[in-house]
Every structure is written in C-alpha cells, then in structure tokens.
C-alpha cells in the first residue's frame, strides 16, 4: 500500500506567501527593488504560485505600500500564478490594473477573529467579498478565498468542523471561487484534525482547488502537512525563511518554512518542482533585508547532504591514529 513515506514522485504544489504574509508584519520597509528581485528569485526557483503582495491601505500596512510597482515590474515566468490579497473592491481594481493573475479574498471562520482582524462580522465580510469576487469575475481574474482560523481561534478555541464546512460552502457557491484555502492562522491545528477536515473538504468539493495554510507556532507544521497529504491534499502555502505571523494572536509565530517543508518532502520522494539550492539562496538574503535572523533551520544548517570539508590536519590525525 502506498503511504506518505512512499511518495513515488507524487507532485506537491508549493505556494509562496513570504513576500506578502511574511513582509507585512516586518517593522522595516524592504526596498521596492529588493522585493521585485525576491519575487523574481522565487519564480526562478520554481514555486507554483507566489502571493506577491496585498492591495490594502498604505496606512494599514505600510510595508506593502509599493504593491502596484512590485506587481507590475516582476518578471513573469510561464506557469507561475502571481496572486495578491485584496480586502475590498478598490483593492481588487488596483490588483487587476497591476495584472494580478488571482485575487485572494480573506475572512475568518471565527466571529471574534473576523471582528478583530477585519472590523466586520462574518456576514458583513461575506457580503463585501461577494462584490470583490464579482469585480474579479468581470475582469476574467481567478478568485481564491482564504478562511482564517479554520483549525481554531485564539479567542474562541475550537471552531466546530461543521461551522467551517458551512462557511466553505457559502464561499464556494456565493463567490464562485476557483480555489479555497483552509488557514491555520495561529498554529492551533493538529494532525488528526487536519486529516479529518481535509478528507471532508475533498469529499464535498472535489473540483475546488484546495490549499492548506499552516503555521509552525507549536512545532506541528510538518506533521500537519503530512496529514493533509495523506487525506488527498497537494497544495500548500509556505513562507520563505519561516517569516510571518498573525498580529491578533500574541506569540503566533511564522508560517511553515518553505525551504524546510520542501527539503523534507523531497527526502520522502515527493516532487515539488522547486530548485531547493536557488530557494535557499533567496532565503539567505532575508536577514540583511529585514534586519534580524530568520527561523529557517535549513538556511542555517544546509541540506542533509551539504557536507563539510575535512579539517586541514585530517591526514596528520589519521596518520597518528594508524600508528598508535
């Protein structure tokens, strides 16, 4: 029987969110030309989708105030989807004018988190996103919806799976989405829960492109990815260097790290389509850009078989050992 430990070249689509989800929480402004170069490096590394930026108010997220310039000036690689988060119709218009391939719309499965994060009830968010989706469809741009707190809310605790499925149903049918992302916004997911929710989604909407978005807040990022794969998922968000985090959940550290997840999956025989050395080169640029270290262990230690040179006196050590 084939298992997650015997992947036999199964394709897993890795989708990068670091230039949006990661950079938006950084206190420093990464220069526009550096953002463009970073996206281009991610394209060259072979990521399936890149969430380039967010078309939001510069007052709300000043780190992404250059969204139009970045989206227009990146180098487009055939086959890569260049996505943007948009909160409202004006944001959608800006993203469409800037040639985004996909609009990513966000609301929460939790009423408390939706109010804290978006300043709206869930019903108000759905009504607003319906107008955004309509604008995207009119322009021929694909729509993805991301449902935050699908695996738990930092203020309410568990969100019943039935409630998550109900909101998924409304997003699928009311917004006409091509894809839907189940988000573990503050790292509360665990493998058994992930397995069950992913199986339920795949059974109910087999034609909808499902993405899983995990955080590694409690060290369960990789186990959750493997549980989702066992349940039939093949698309995952991840963040270069492990950057990111939710500002409305103290201690909620970054997204699962792109290079760590890809390194692990490739060792298990999965095909991610990603050039890992190129991705690591991109990750190692980050500390100089953001002014601090990054969580990524692979960026520090290298890949499993990135070996170290023998010490200069190795032959002398061996000669002494053999003569003893």
Would you write up a description of this structure?
With 324 residues, the chain is an alpha/beta fold. It has one domain (13-323): TIM Barrel. It contains 14 helices and eight strands. α7 links the parallel β5 and β6 (179-183). α2 packs across α3 (67-73) and α4 packs parallel to α6. The protein starts with 12 loop residues before the first strand and ends with a helix.
Give a nutshell description of this structure.
With 324 residues, the protein is an alpha/beta fold.
Features:
324 residues; eight-stranded parallel beta barrel; 42% helix; 8 strands; alpha/beta; globular; TIM Barrel; 14 helices
Class of secondary structure makeup: alpha/beta
- Kindly report the spatial arrangement of strands forming the biggest sheet: 1-2-3-4-5-6-7-8
- Residues in β-strands, percent: 5-15%
The overall number of domains is: 1
In CATH, what is the class?
Answer: Alpha Beta
CATH topology: TIM Barrel
Quaternary form: single chain
Tell me the CATH architecture. Answer: Alpha-Beta Barrel
From the spread of the alpha carbons, the general shape counts as: globular
CATH superfamily: Aldolase class I
- List unreliable stretches of 5+ residues: none
N-to-C SSE string, H for helix and E for strand: EHHEHEHEHHEHEHEHEHHHHH
**Radius of gyration computed on alpha carbons:** 21 Å
Strand element count: 8
Q: Give the helix proportion (percent range).
A: 40-55%
Q: Biggest β-sheet, characterized?
A: 8 strands, parallel, barrel
Number of helices: 14
Distance from N terminus to C terminus (CA atoms, Å) equals 52 Å
Mean pLDDT: 95
């Amino acid at each position: 029987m084939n298992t997650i430990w015997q992947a036999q070249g199964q394709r897993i689509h890795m989708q990068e969110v670091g230039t949006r989800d990661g950079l938006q929480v950084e206190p420093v402004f990464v220069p526009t030309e550096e953002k463009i170069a970073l996206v281009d490096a991610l394209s060259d590394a072979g990521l399936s989708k890149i969430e380039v930026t967010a078309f939001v108010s510069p007052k709300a997220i000043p780190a992404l105030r250059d969204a139009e310039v970045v989206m227009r000036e990146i180098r487009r690689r055939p086959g890569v989807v260049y996505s943007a988060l948009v909160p409202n119709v004006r944001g959608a218009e800006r993203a469409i004018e800037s040639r985004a391939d996909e609009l990513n719309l966000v609301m929460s499965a939790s009423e408390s988190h939706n109010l804290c994060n978006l300043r709206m009830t869930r019903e108000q968010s759905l009504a607003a996103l319906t107008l955004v989706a309509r604008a995207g469809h009119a322009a021929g741009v694909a729509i993805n919806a991301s449902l935050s707190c699908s695996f738990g809310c930092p203020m309410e605790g568990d969100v019943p799976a039935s409630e998550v499925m109900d909101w998924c149903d409304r997003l699928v049918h009311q917004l006409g989405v091509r894809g839907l992302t189940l988000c573990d916004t503050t790292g509360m997911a665990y493998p058994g829960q992930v397995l069950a929710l992913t199986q339920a989604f795949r059974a109910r909407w087999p034609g909808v492109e499902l993405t899983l978005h995990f955080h590694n807040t409690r060290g369960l990022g990789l186990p959750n990815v493997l549980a989702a794969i066992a349940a039939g998922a093949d698309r995952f968000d991840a963040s270069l260097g492990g950057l990111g985090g939710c500002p409305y959940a103290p201690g909620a550290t970054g997204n699962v790290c792109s290079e760590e997840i890809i390194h692990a999956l490739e060792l298990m025989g999965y095909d991610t389509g990603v050039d890992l050395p190129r991705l690591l080169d991109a990750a190692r640029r980050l500390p100089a850009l953001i002014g601090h270290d990054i969580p990524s262990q692979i960026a520090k230690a290298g890949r499993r078989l990135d070996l170290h040179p023998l010490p200069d006196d190795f032959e002398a050590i061996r000669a002494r050992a053999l003569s003893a």
